[in-house]
């Protein structure tokens, strides 16, 4: 596979340079990266979008056509719950796939493999590191949940105790603890763990050691990292709204039909029925919304990778040391040696 001058990840960047580098990388590589995302993660996104569209239309149809106490309603809720579990698993696999595709592609660009790029070569790399990519996604989500869920449970318990006669003070105390302790800790841990996937991809480090190293790198750099991520997420969210518009429109129409006063005419007949045409439209809109939002995650993952290398260079100067080692080294040592042998 041919090589070309790689995009320089290993360098220090200030706040503005980080954004410039992010958009420069996406501009240079959007064709190869988007093709890889569509071909590898596309089937999962299609399943997720189609399944999500049918699930939502089924929920709407259930509330429109059955009563809460009917046997059909109970059966439908059971089926909907099972479908939801399948979709959650599919969403998990899709998120892991997008994380794997983006990090592996970044590693390939660092090695210079961007000219005559082939998706099959990227897929071979992903397959060889499959267990690592799955574990990365699991570790990030499990650790984040392990940190945030206890605070949420504590807040819920305080609200319950307050509702049973414990007083407003208990509810307020639980709420303040969740807002001023739980959320900041969760945000800090999530920001720290953002460095984890690219770190394992580059350094081949064990999970526990990797988490400790994330704490080391983020120390004294949390606020600039958080600010960078926050702006990137705002940009991603703004662009993502465009993909959500068709689904929002159809969802609004469906919700209106559930409200009795809005969903029926004066004689009691339905103003709108969920037919096959609407279900197809809803499914297509779901694929566009889910696919667009998930594919945009590649931008956030790239931002995380840039910040990882930025922090490594600030604290350890790995890239600078590599450049210093190359000083005085001829570009083609073999040719230089052959020329010396002529004398």
Helix/strand-derived category reads mainly alpha
The whole-angstrom Rg is 26 Å
Mean of pLDDT? 80
The percent range for strand residues is under 5%
SSE string = HHHHHHHHHHHHH
Unreliable stretches covering 5 or more consecutive residues: 259-272, 333-343
Q: Please work out how many helical segments DSSP would assign.
A: 13
Assign an overall shape: globular
Straight-line N-to-C gap: 36 Å
The percent range for helix content is over 70%
Main features:
343 residues; mainly alpha; 13 helices; disordered C terminus
Structure description:
The chain has 343 residues and is mainly alpha-helical. 82% of the residues lie in helices and 0% in strands. The chain contains 13 helices and no strands. Helix 1 packs parallel to helix 8 and helix 8 runs antiparallel to helix 10. The radius of gyration is 26 Å and the shape is globular. The C terminus is likely disordered.
Put the structure in a nutshell.
With 343 residues, the chain is mostly helical. It is 82% helix and 0% strand.
Give the helix/strand layout:
Elements: H1 15-65, H2 71-110, H3 119-128, H4 130-166, H5 168-193, H6 196-203, H7 207-218, H8 222-258, H9 260-263, H10 276-295, H11 297-315, H12 318-326, H13 333-340
Helix pairs in contact: 1-2, 1-8, 1-10, 1-11, 2-3, 2-4, 2-6, 2-11, 4-5, 4-6, 8-10, 8-11
């Amino acid at each position: 596979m041919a090589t070309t001058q790689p995009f320089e990840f290993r360098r220090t960047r200030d706040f503005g340079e980080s954004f410039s580098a992010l958009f420069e990388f996406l501009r240079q590589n959007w064709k190869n990266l988007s093709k890889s995302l569509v071909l590898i993660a596309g089937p999962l996104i299609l399943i997720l979008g189609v399944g999500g569209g049918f699930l939502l239309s089924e929920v709407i149809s259930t509330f429109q056509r059955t009563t809460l106490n009917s046997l059909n309603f109970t059966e439908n809720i059971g089926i909907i719950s099972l479908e939801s579990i399948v979709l959650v698993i599919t969403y998990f696999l899709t998120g892991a796939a997008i994380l794997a595709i983006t990090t592996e592609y970044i590693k390939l660009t660092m090695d210079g493999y961007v000219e005559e790029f082939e998706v099959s070569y990227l897929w071979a790399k992903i397959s060889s590191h499959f267990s690592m990519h799955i574990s990365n996604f699991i570790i990030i989500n499990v650790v984040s949940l392990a940190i945030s869920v206890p605070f949420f449970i504590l807040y819920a318990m305080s609200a319950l105790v307050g509702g049973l006669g414990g007083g407003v003070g208990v509810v307020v105390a639980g709420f303040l603890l969740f807002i001023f302790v739980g959320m900041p800790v969760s945000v800090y841990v999530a920001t720290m763990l953002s460095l984890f996937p690219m770190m394992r991809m580059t350094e081949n480090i064990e999970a526990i050691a990797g988490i400790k190293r994330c704490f080391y790198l983020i120390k004294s750099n949390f606020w600039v990292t958080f600010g960078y991520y926050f702006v990137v997420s705002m940009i991603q969210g703004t662009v993502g709204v465009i993909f959500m518009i068709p689904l929002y429109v159809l969802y609004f129409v469906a919700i209106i039909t559930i409200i009795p006063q809005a969903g029926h005419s004066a004689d009691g007949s339905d103003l709108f029925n969920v037919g096959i045409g609407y279900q197809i439209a809803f499914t297509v809109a779901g694929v566009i919304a889910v696919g667009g939002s998930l594919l945009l995650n590649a931008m956030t993952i790239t931002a995380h990778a840039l910040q990882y290398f930025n922090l490594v260079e600030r604290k350890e100067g790995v890239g600078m040391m590599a450049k210093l080692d190359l000083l005085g080294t001829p570009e083609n040592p073999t040719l230089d040696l052959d020329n010396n042998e002529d004398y």
